[in-house]
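HUMAN: Quick job: go over this next protein and say how the chain folds.
***
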Amino acid sequence: MKKLNQSGIAHWILPAVVIVVIALIGVKVLKGSHADLVTKYVPQSASKASKWSGWTPIGVGNTIDTPSPTALSGSSSIDVYFSQQVPANSGSLFHDVWNGSSWSGAKAIDGQGYKYPAALAQVGGITQLFAVQSNTFIYQNVYNGSPASLWKSTGQVSDHAAPAVTSLGNGQFAIYSKKRTSPSTNPVYQNIWNGNSWSGWTSIGGNSLSGPAAATTPNGTTYLFIRGADNSIYENVSVGKGWSGWNSIGGSTTTSPAVVSIGAKKLELFIREADNSNYSNVWNGKKWLGWQPLGGTDLTPPAQGDVIPPLPGIGAVSYGKNNNKVAIYVVGTDGKIYQNLYQ
C-alpha cells in the first residue's frame, strides 16, 4: 500500500473501489434535513427504491404512538389517526387526510385521554374508530368528520397497545387485541361485528409483546400477526372458521408489526427491527419472499407518562385502484409523523 501511495496509483484506485462497492450494495445517499431524522438506508433493489417517494413530514409534533392509517378500497385518499401528548400524561386523538397530493391539516377529535388508535374506513364516509383510554380499556366510536356518538367501552383491556381492526366485507369487521393475563402471558383476543351485534371476546392464544396486526384478503382469508416473546413475528391464518395456529415467519422487532392486503392474495408485512430500521416481507399467495430492508428509522420516543411506554411502530395502508399502492408512517426523532409512498 505504501508503494501505491508513493506512485500516485492509490489516488484513483480507492475512489474506484468505493464506487464499485456502492453500486453493488445499492446504497443511495439521501439529502435534506428530513433524511437525518428518519432514514438510514434504502432498499438494495434500485428499481424498488425508485418507487418509494421518500420520507416527508406531515408536520405534526408530539406524536406518542404508532399512527393508524386507513383508506377505502380503491380510494386515493388516506385518513390517518394518531395521538399527541397534550397535555402531559394523557393523549389526545387527531385526524388528518391525505388527498393524494396534500394534507387537510390535523383536526382534534373529542376524546382527551384516548391513545393507541385503530381505524377502519367504511362505505358512506364513516370510520370505525377504536382507542385505549387511560384505564387501558378499548373504546369504540363512529367518526364521520366528528365523533358520531359517545365513546363506548368494548369491555376489553388492551394493556397499553393499539388493537387491530380488519374488514370482513358486507359491513362486518373484526377487532383483535392483546391482553396481559399474567406477567409473562399476553394472549390475543378476537371480537367480530356481524353488522348487528358483537360475537364477544374469545382467545386465539399466542403470546404477544406488542399490539397485533391484521389484514383480510378479498377471498375472505384473515391473516393475524404478533410480536412473540422472542421478538420474532408469528402468523395465524383463518379461512372463515378456525385458525391455523401460530407459526414463526422470522424477523426481529421491538414494536408492533403492520400489514396490508394488496390485490387478490398478496400481503406486505412491515416491522421495525432492533436497530430501528424498517423491513418488509411479501406474501405472494403461496410463500413469504423473505425480509428486505426498506429504509431505516432512527426513533427516539418522546417523553410519555405511561407506566409501560411502547415504542412507536409502523403504520401501513394499501390504497388506490386494486389497492396496489402502499403508504407507511413512522414517528421521527422530532415527534413528527413521516410518510413514505410506494406506487
Remarks:
- The longest strand covers residues 115-122.
- The longest helix spans residues 10-25.
